[in-house]
Amino acid sequence: MYKRILLAIDGSEHSKRATDEAAKLAGLCGASIEIVYVADYSKAMSDVLHTQSKEDLDLARREKLLPFEEKMESFGVSFRVKILHGEPGPAIVEYANSSDVDLVVIGSRGLNTLQEMVLGSVSHKVVKRVDCPVLIVK
Fold first, then answer.
1. If you average pLDDT over residues 80-95, what whole number do you get?
2. For residue 137, how many C-alpha atoms fall within 13 Å in the half-sphere facing its CB?
3. What is the pTM of this model?
4. Is residue 43 within 8 Å of 61, Cβ to Cβ?
5. What does the alpha-carbon distance between residue 11 and residue 107 come to, in Å, rounded to a whole number?
6. 3 state DSSP class of 116
7. Staple partner for 8: which of 31, 51, 106, 109, CB 3.0–4.6 Å?
8. Coil, strand or helix: which one is 106?
9. Helix, strand counts (H, E) of the chain
10. Pairing mode, if any, of strands 103-107 and 79-86?
11. 29 closest CA partner among 78, 84, 93, 91
């Protein structure tokens, strides 16, 4: 079945639900999980302006990821964390397509039709462009 699962997170409640599903799947299959967090360029600028140093920024990101890591540990799932930089949709797609992952799990933000048409959603961009199956968790 699945050996490597890519879990794309952004720290939201949707990411937490996606984490639960990915951990359950990994537990059932004996798969490992690659947690991917994308430091979005548009948000990174404001992060840099509001922190003292690069170390503070790295620490803030690690603290944001801690609940997700703890969830994996509670499920007894093998995992590793990768922080990417760039626009979330394309960064996740590029990473997934260049890695040997069997499944991508991502949360859905639940945009309405107009918002999705105007903004586009990360999960929609990932589904359209990634080369493996994708599980979108609501």
1. 94
2. 22
3. 0.86
4. no
5. 10
6. helix
7. 106
8. strand
9. 6, 5
10. unpaired
11. 78
